[in-house]
TrEMBL record:
This is Putative sigma-54 modulation protein. It holds the Pfam family Ribosomal_S30AE. Signal peptide: none annotated. The lineage of its organism: Bacteria, Pseudomonadati, Bacteroidota, Flavobacteriia, Flavobacteriales. It comes from the Bacteria.
Amino acid sequence: MKVSVHAVNFAVDKKLVDFVQERLDKLEKYYDKVVSADVFLKVEKTSDKENKIAEIKINVPGDDFLVKKQCKTFEEAVELSSESLERLLVKRKEKISSHI
């Protein structure tokens, strides 16, 4: 799967990009028709500690899934987002296989 990581208002390091890639590669075992993923990492300028936002858009044939999570760290936000995407992809796979 092709993963594009976009950092908004900060420079992203290689370690974080590798973490995102590794985590999203795991999604393919739930639904193998994933074409690509766009990951937007943003830092919100607030006094709140939970100011890291991960927005993940997954492209599958005929549909796009968008999940957005806000946490204290990007790793936590990516983790929660990918767990939500796992549930969405499993649901989609079950829906498609029930129509066949």
